[in-house]
Amino acid sequence: MKNLIFLILIAISTLSFGRTTYAYEDRSTDKSLGETTFGVRSTASLFSSSGNYVGIGAGWQIRFRLSENLNSEWFADWIVTDLDGLGARYDAHIGESMLIYPGRQVLKAGRFTPYILGGFCGDYTQIKSNTYFNDLTKGYEKKAKERWSFATQLGLGTHYNFTDKFDISFNAQYVLHFGKDLHSEIETNSLGEDYLHIHEETGGGLEGHFFFTISANFKLADLIR
Q1: Three-state SS string across 15-52, please?
Q2: What 8-state DSSP symbol labels residue 105?
Q3: Torsions phi, psi of 25, nearest 5?
Q4: Beta strands 70-82 and 53-67: pairing type?
Q5: Which of 2, 25, 89, 130 has a 20 to 30 Å separation from 18 between CA atoms?
Q6: Which long-range contacts (CB under 8 A, 24 or more apart) does 6-15 make?
Q7: Using one digit for the tens of pLDDT, what is the confidence trace for 146-203?
Q8: Based on the number of CB atoms within 10 Å of its own CB, is 205 exposed (0-12), middle (13-18) or buried (19 or more)?
Q9: Which residues pair with residue 40 across a beta bridge?
Q10: Rounded to an integer, what distance in angstroms lies between the CA atom of residue 56 and that of residue 82?
Q11: What stretch of H or E contains 129?
Q12: Which residues contact 139 (CB under 8 A, 6 or more apart)?
């Protein structure tokens, strides 16, 4: 699975940078400085600490272009991961990323515009079981654990600019969380029934996962020109 993810990262990088020269223009024709866009996005997240399940989510983002080679992206996501029907993981992200465009280029219609992404976010996570087995005398009870954490992310992506006011963007990131680490495993009780065991690491910890987004973005205004 990790090899497949790295191949996806390499593919995005190759596709993006292979088309970079087509997005180059002289800076005097750059009309993107101060550009503000609003976008909606779909997300996929691979959480190894919860058993290599894929979470699917949705969110929104606002971009503000700071310079020819630098864009800022402010985002929020809500992600739900089904854990074999025995429970679910819920994740909320809110944060900011910087998009660095290599070379001298602008967002030009009909072209790819690749970028390097880096940033941070605040994160809320809850893992909730449908049933939790204690022992034969106590039977079952529903159980949930939650945490707040801080995260940083790094990745690669590209815009495809359908027009000068609309683009579709793809990126792949690796997100590293700082804080209590939540885990869940499927275990079997003495009756042979499966249940979700949720626990957390004591003290601080690190949890990393791969994160993918696809978004549709619309230009709202140009606040400089």
Answers
A1: HHHHCHHHHECCHHHCCCCCEEEEEEEEEEEEEHHHCC
A2: B
A3: -150, 165
A4: antiparallel
A5: 2
A6: 8/172, 8/212, 9/155, 9/156, 9/172, 12/156, 12/157, 12/158, 12/170, 12/171, 12/172, 13/114, 13/156, 15/112, 15/158
A7: 888 899 999 999 999 998 889 999 999 999 888 777 778 888 777 777 888 887 776 5
A8: middle
A9: 60, 216
A10: 9
A11: strand 112-129
A12: 133
- Domains detected in the chain: 2-222 (2.40.160.20)
**pTM of the shown model:** 0.76
Give the closest residue to 182 by CA, choosing from 210, 152, 202, 211: 202
pLDDT for the residue 48? 59
Q: What is the dihedral angle through the alpha carbons of 1, 10, 120, 76, rounded to the nearest 10 degrees?
A: -80
Q: DSSP assignment, residue 29?
A: G
What gap in Å lies between CA 101 and CA 25, rounded to an integer? 13
Average pLDDT, rounded, for the chain: 79
Q: Name beta bridge partners: 46.
A: 54, 210
d(CA 130, CA 159) in angstroms, rounded, equals 40
What six digits make up the tokens of 195?
A: 């249940």
Number of CB atoms found within 10 A of residue 185's CB: 13
Q: Measure CA of the first residue to CA of the last residue in the chain; give whole Å.
A: 46
